[in-house]
Amino acid sequence: MITQGLLARQGAGGCGNRGSEKFKRLGKECLFRRFKIQGAASHISKDSKIRRGRSLGTGVGREERGLQGEARNGVRRSAEGKQSSKIVELVSAGKFLFSLSADGTCIAYQRACLQKGIVLNLSDMEIIRSVFHNKLESSVIIVYTLNQDPNARLYISTILLSNIESGHVHRRRKVLRREQLYWPSFIEFDNINRKILVFSATERLYKVWELSGYRLHFVLQSDDIDEIKISKGILLVINERSKSHVKLRIVNIHTGSLLVCHKLLLHRHSKIEFIDILNDKIIIKQDNQHMQILDLGTKQMIKSSFVTPLSFLFLHQTKLFLAFREDSIETRDFNANMVARIKTGLKREVEVGSNCVVNANQTVLITNYKDHHDDGWIDISDIRSGKNIAKLQYGMYTHVRGASITAMCFSDSNHELYTGSRDGTVLLWSAFG
Question: What's the pTM value of the predicted model, to 2 decimals?
Answer without folding.
Answer: 0.77
